[in-house]
Fold this sequence. Notes:
Blueprint: H1 2-17, E1 45-46, H2 52-56, H3 63-71, H4 80-83, H5 89-95, E2 99-100
Amino acid sequence: MRTSALAVLLLAGLLFGGCGRASNGDRVGNSRTSANTNRADGQLIDLNSATKAQLINLPGIGEAYAQRIIDNRPYREKTDLIRRDIIPEATYREIQEKVIARHN
């Protein structure tokens, strides 16, 4: 009896514990669920002019990657980040919808 009650509680936790989460792990309603931006104002981060602080705010980008992005400017396309081995492809996939490479 005690084992079946524990199983019911575990099952209920699994069923109801995940409510309120999107399939990508972000909470529903979180501004990060937007596919196009990482900022509430809706602007993309320009790889050719962004500050180090702006780059660090991107997911997966720390101080070292931010500095590599800055040091390897200019970018013709945002895909230059992986073509030129600036950041790993997995990191690029996290930020690709949040950045742009504008031409000056």
